[in-house]
Amino acid sequence: MLILLTASSLQARTWTQAASGKSIEAELVKVEGGKVTLKMSNGREYVLDATSLSAGDQTFLKEAKSSSGSAAGGADWPNFRGPNLDGISPDTGLLKEWPEEGPKQLWTYNEAGMGYSGFSVAGGKLYTMGTRGSDVTVVCINVADGSEVWAKEIGNDDQKGYSAGWGHGPRSTPTVSDGLVFALGPKGSFACLEAETGKKVWSKDYVSDFGGKSGGWGFSASPLVDGDHVILAPGGNDAGIVCLEKASGKTVWKASDVTPGKAEYATIIPCEINGTKQYVRLFEQELVGVAAEDGKLLWSSPWGGKTAVIPTPIVDGNQIYVASGYGVGCKLVEIGSDNTAKDVWSNKTMKNHHGGVIKVGDHLYGFSDGGGLICQNWDDGEMVWNEKGQYLSKGSVHVADGNLYALNEGDGSLTLAVASSKGFEEKGRFTLSPQSSNRNPQGKVWTHPLVIGGKLFLRDQEHIVCYDVKG
After folding, report:
1. 37 shares its domain with 178
2. DSSP string of 130-161?
3. What is the pLDDT of residues 6-21, one digit of tens each?
4. Contact of 125 with 142, CB cutoff 8 Å
5. Which of 355, 293, 350, 360 is nearest to 322 (CA)?
6. Is position 171 within any domain?
7. Are residues 108 and 66 in the same domain?
8. pLDDT of 31
């Protein structure tokens, strides 16, 4: 999300780093994709994670966003789980309850192709991916009316080399940054495209260029763009994480200390711990943090993943929450001042398969295998409440304007509920329509919901449906 700055925004002020307490005097240049660009009096610029700043600084940024024009409307969601990688929409003023038939349907787009890719929204355009025939295709759609702007093939999908038994096609969500789109196909084709036209700028291949090795369901993690770099996790036994120049695709560094074998499916999280900027990634057998500067391994924590490790880690200060399904569970890891990782707690309360977990305040929300929708304490991992039944069996979650959007994967029903630790309180429910007649019989409605700019987006394979959820 880009904040359009006014003259008053450009006045120097004191900025404080939350973890270290260090302060600097600098001007605010811009905020985009969860990153803050600050300019010192000597002209030097620094790019920081917005979440690494003090609470007061973050409040200042929110106020700047609110007074900055169109960007304040929450119109941009440039990557999987949003600009802060937390799954929480910046939208406010949304419907607090839905009518019996659900919110008004604005448009339907029926050519997205096969697959489970999610949505990125930037500059009034929605970007996603799908397999059309045998082509892995990036699609750009006009948010206003659902019309196709362009579609670009970036690789082949012959449904071989990865398990397509639950449905084929891309699972990764494109990332949009500075007029570029970064997209990953299930077999490892990776492309940088012009966001306006779809023209290919450069491309790589996870296997041939990086020695990558996918999990059984293909390469699925979404790309992380951080400043001038794009950070990827091809896995393999050479370097499980690599950093490339965003503009050219040239390799900046390889994390040769990280050799996980299978890439698995979680998305990389940028953060700052103990004063060091780093990238956190969950693999099947370990959670790791590598230095953003050179990819050196800073710390690791064992993880007993089974079959598939998918949910994105959640970082808060020097604590990191991870979860996965197949009976594994979850844990909270704390990174000490000496970069030693230790478990704060570990249990099977949240066995989250691939629907994601979201932290709101001091609580976590997500679907747990067998437990339905649950609320869990961050501090001790104990369950606060759960709700399960026909429409809340298993699926994915999103948060917007204080409410949970809980998508049931089996029937495509979406439940609106208050995001509160006090208990489950439903505020509406409806079922996605149309749903795909071409979906693999073993596949389900697995694309995560998104609310941005007052619109709700849902997808089942080739069908993308947009709803009006403004209050």
Report:
1. no
2. EEETTEEEEEEEETTT--EEEEEEEEE--S-S
3. 333 345 677 877 767 7
4. yes
5. 350
6. yes
7. no
8. 76
Asked if residue 81 belongs to a domain, the reply is no
Take residue 427 and report the two structure tokens written for it.
């505020």
Helix (H) or strand (E) holding 193, with range, is strand 189-194
Same domain, 68 and 97: no
448 domain-assigned: yes
Which stretches of the chain score pLDDT less than 50? 1-10, 66-74
CA 220 to chain CA centroid, Å, is 12
**Judgement on whether residues 140 and 182 belong to the same structural domain of the protein:** yes
Residues 17 and 131 in one domain: no
Q: Which residues contact 206 (CB under 8 A, 6 or more apart)?
A: 184, 188, 189, 190, 212, 214, 219, 232, 234, 235, 263
Query: Number of structural domains, the chain?
Result: 2
Q: What is the pLDDT of residues 325-384, one digit of tens each?
A: 999 999 999 999 999 999 999 999 999 999 999 999 999 999 999 999 999 999 999 999
Which residue spans within 303-447 are E strands per DSSP?
Answer: 314-316, 319-324, 329-335, 341-347, 357-360, 363-368, 372-377, 383-387, 395-400, 403-408, 413-418, 426-431
Q: Both 303 and 390 in a single domain?
A: yes
SS3 at position 229: strand
pTM assigned to the model:
0.86
Nearest to 362 by CA among 304, 398, 316: 316
| SS3 label, residue 303 | coil
Are both 288 and 186 inside the same structural domain?
A: yes
